[in-house]
Design brief:
Helices cover 33% and strands 22% of the residues. The protein is built from 19 helices and 33 strands. A hairpin with a 2-residue loop joins strand 31 and strand 32. Helix 12 crosses helix 14 (556-576), helix 14 (556-576) packs antiparallel against helix 15 (580-591) and helix 18 (676-686) runs antiparallel to helix 19 (706-719). The longest helix has 25 residues, at 3-27. 57% of the residues are buried. Mean pLDDT is 93; it is low at 1-41 and 259-270. It binds alpha-L-fucopyranose. The site of alpha-L-fucopyranose (FUC) has 10 residues, from loops.
Length: 799
């Protein structure tokens, strides 16, 4: 018997064992759903369209941090493309290259002799990960609802309400008003589809599940279950199974039946039902649950069937209305913390895709606010405590081979995903990132030891769900040992915003291990005897002194990240009262790092040598050396004006337009330079059809979610900054937003800030302090030193 068939039969038997209890559970729960089908929200927080999605980047995303869907809203056929955040290819693996350590001294020597291309070749032969690539994040599959109708339809509307995290489809056919509501509940761990009509007996369709994975699908009278396996990639064996289940609850003049004789997906004809048909129902609720056997990066022993079964049984125990209420309450608990009003115009009445096309004309400030809140919605929907961090595509991927594997690119992209988390009041969403860094601090120990003979841990420019840490793809991208150190900066920021010492205690060992690696691997460069990283690169930018490689020693970004890492470890050691000797050693090493340098064109140097103007691509998307200006604050317009001017020069050389995320980074940088109009003009490009799809997803292109998060962070930085011990109100307010208000932005030191402005001037600010810290407030040139008690918000009008 072919193994796939054997697989499928085993699965089907396993499924049959689940059937009876589930059918019983379903039978006891067919309460009539009572929804208000006519409440059409035309709120400023709604994305809406007058057509069904014809492409994936027109479909609308929902997610509960783990279970996601893209909703197409078709009339004859509804399509939900499904994701589960732990469904990746492969299984636990360790890609460290055991030849690396012997090659390391030779590589270093070649680099210091200026033989960069030779060094790159040797790295390619001896130091790269085995396998050379990491594992992709994969689609789960698709749910289709076929309505079998070609009736003419009027009043079609498809929308996503960011305030409730509920997507809807409405239309009228033959005088009947139909409505679908769809949400992914973080409370109940299921996706709920609720279909209603304003006349009885009007809802008929057939539901089916498909997947590109090896899987078996089996339907009963009221449910469909799919059981399958992930796949081996690049020689890493497949280790995960997954289960997806759709449970159907029908109300009113219902009729349910098996659809006879169909196939197992990707497999032979099984002669068993794989679809469920609903005929002439008043209302229908579908519950979708899915899980994999992934428990963590080294444990894949989860029972996906049992998990899914218990989730469905629990959800069946609640009315659809209760599921909806609980979902909305969980969402609003996070979402409603921040409100942003930049003004409203009639443009708000237009469908979202048309507004994107016209945003550059400048009369739709509300779309900027919608873009900002959409990013907050996305982070809430794809990064919740206990889950996986946001990938390059957040949670949403329709492929087995997505762009850049939809994994974690940690030479900017993953870090950018979390930039808005602190300022935009979603600190809980950082939890999955923290957990990933703690795990990289485990897997990276072996890479540090095997490849560098070093203590501590290291991660290079990418990682995946298995927390792989070795250099991948090729020396010119992968040979960058700062990925883990940069991630530690995100974690430190989380501490700065909250001042939560328990959190600091939890992350400190990872910070310390990251620093230890560099104590053991920094080397003296021959010219100035500064301590530098070697081999390394300035992310993905060719070294102008080489023929065809980025490989170099001591690029500016490395030194900047290490200054942060060492400083943060030193501060943490003082706060936690630990590791004084270690902190002293870090201080000494820090003082020997290569300094920031200003080049002959007045620019901030990207490399140890003054090579910027000889770059192969003057407009390169990465602006790595400007890390010091943002997200770090080593360069600051107030504290280090000369360096800020050099950073500005570098930005001018690089230009404003780049890929989605790179455009968003530039926007944040100009905000840090306190040039609001420049930041805004970059934002106009980011929120144009060139960089934003009709569903508001960021276009690298292709879709990459970091641009959404970077854009929201940029808006926050224009309105409020809090680096370097002061709270700056409206530091980069553009002329395009003369009147507005924002509520609930966060500042470092445990502050929340509400701001209202009129005619481009601060009208009033209310500062709430959670920790009672003293702080300097700044509006323009005016500063004021205050200490605010936790229960007594302080009001200031900037005078
Ligand atoms: C980095 C960038 C690319 C892309 C990829 C996922 O390599 O240089 O533009 O964003 O990550």
């Amino acid at each position: 018997m072919p193994s796939i068939l054997r697989h499928s039969l085993v699965c089907l038997l396993a499924l049959a064992a689940l059937w009876i209890p589930l059918c019983l559970a379903a039978a006891t729960n067919s309460a009539l759903p009572s929804y208000d089908t006519n409440a059409v929200a035309n709120s400023p927080l709604t994305l809406f369209y007058t057509n069904a999605a014809s492409k994936w980047t027109e479909a609308l995303p929902i997610g509960n941090g783990r279970l996601g869907a893209m909703i197409f809203g078709g009339i004859a056929r509804e399509h939900l493309q499904l994701n589960e955040s732990t469904l990746w290819a492969g299984g636990p693996y360790d890609p460290a290259n055991t030849n690396a350590l012997a090659a390391l001294p030779v590589v270093r020597q070649l680099i210091f002799e200026g033989k960069y291309d030779e060094a790159s070749q040797l790295i390619s032969q001896k130091m790269m990960a085995v396998p050379l690539q990491q594992m992709p994040y994969e689609t789960l599959g698709d749910l289709f609802l076929d309505f079998g109708t070609n009736d003419a339809v009027t009043d079609y509307r498809r929308d996503l309400d960011l305030d409730t995290a509920v997507a809807s489809v409405r239309y009228t056919a033959n005088g009947v008003h139909f409505k679908r509501e769809i949400f992914s509940s973080p409370m109940d761990q299921v996706i709920v589809i609720h279909l209603t009509a304003d006349q009885p007996g009007q809802i008929s369709f057939t539901a089916s599940l498909q997947t590109p994975h090896t899987a078996a699908v089996l339907a009963s009278s009221d449910s469909i279950e799919m059981y399958g396996y992930n796949n081996a990639v690049h020689g890493v064996p497949a280790a995960l199974n997954f289960t997806a289940r759709v449970s159907v609850r029908v109300a009113g003049g219902q009729m349910k039946r098996f659809t006879p004789a169909l196939t197992a997906t990707n497999g032979p004809k099984m002669g068993l039902a794989t679809e469920v048909s609903i005929l002439h129902a008043d209302a229908v609720t579908l519950l979708i649950a899915a899980a994999t056997s992934y428990k963590n990066y080294h444990n894949v022993s989860g029972n996906s069937q049992a998990l899914v079964r218990s989730q469905i049984v629990a959800a069946l125990g609640k009315s659809p209305e209760r599921l909806r209420m609980d979902h909305i309450a969980a969402h609003q608990n996070l979402f409603r913390r921040v409100t942003l009003n930049l003004g409203e115009t009639d443009a708000m009445k237009l469908p979202t895709d048309i507004r994107i096309a016209h945003f550059a004309e400048g009369n739709d400030p509300q779309l900027a606010a919608l873009y900002f809140q959409f990013a907050r919605y996305l982070l809430i929907s794809c990064s919740r405590p206990g889950g996986q961090p946001a990938t390059l595509q957040g949670l949403w991927n329709n492929s087995l081979k997505p762009p850049w594997d939809s994994k974690y690119t940690i030479n900017i992209n993953t870090e950018m995903n979390y930039w808005p988390a602190e300022t935009c009041n979603l600190p809980e969403c950082v939890d999955p990132l923290t957990q990933m860094v703690l795990e990289l601090a485990e897997t990276g120990v072996r890479t540090a030891r095997v490849e560098y003979g070093a203590r501590g841990w290291v991660a290079h420019h990418n990682t995946d769900v298995w927390r792989a840490t070795a250099p991948i793809d090729g020396p010119q991208y992968g040979m960058w040992p700062l990925g883990g150190a940069w991630l530690c900066q995100n974690l430190w920021e989380h501490y700065l915003f909250t001042e939560d010492k328990a959190y600091l205690r939890k992350i400190y060992p990872a910070m310390k291990g990251a620093a230890q690696f560099f104590l053991d691997t920094l080397v003296e460069e021959p010219t100035h005897h500064w301590l530098v990283t070697c081999p390394s690169l300035s992310p993905e930018n060719d070294n102008p002194a080489a023929t065809n490689t980025s490989i170099t020693a001591g690029p500016a970004i490395d030194m900047e990240i290490l200054r942060d890492l060492f400083d943060h470890c030193i501060q943490a050691s003082a706060i936690l009262g630990t590791d004084r000797k270690f902190a002293t050693q870090l201080g000494i090493t820090r003082s020997r790092l290569a300094p920031l340098q200003i080049g002959s064109s007045g620019q901030l140097q990207e490399w140890l040598q003054d090579l910027d103007l000889q770059a192969h691509d003057l407009h390169h998307r990465h602006v790595s050396h400007l890390y010091a200006l943002f997200p770090s604050s080593q360069i600051d317009v107030i504290d280090t004006p000369d360096l800020a001017a050099a950073a500005r020069k570098s930005l001018e050389i690089r230009g404003d337009q780049a890929t989605g995320w790179a455009t968003a980074w530039r926007m944040n940088l100009w905000a840090r330079l306190h040039d609001g109009d420049h930041a805004y003009s970059i934002f106009q490009f980011l929120l144009s059809p060139a960089r934003t799809y009709p569903d508001l997803f960021d276009a690298h292109p292709p879709f990459q979610i970091d641009g959404n998060f970077g854009g929201a962070s940029g808006i926050a930085e224009m309105l409020l900054q809090s680096q370097n011990h002061e709270i700056q109100l409206l530091p980069a307010l553009p002329r395009a937003w003369p009147n507005g208000s924002v509520k609930g932005l966060r500042a470092r030191g445990g502050f929340e800030v509400d701001i209202t402005w009129q005619d481009g001037q601060l009208a009033s600010a209310t500062i709430h302090s959670h920790n009672g810290n003293p702080v300097r407030l700044r509006y323009g040139q005016t500063t004021r030193f205050v200490q605010i008690a936790p229960d007594h918000p302080f009001q200031w009008n900037g005078q």
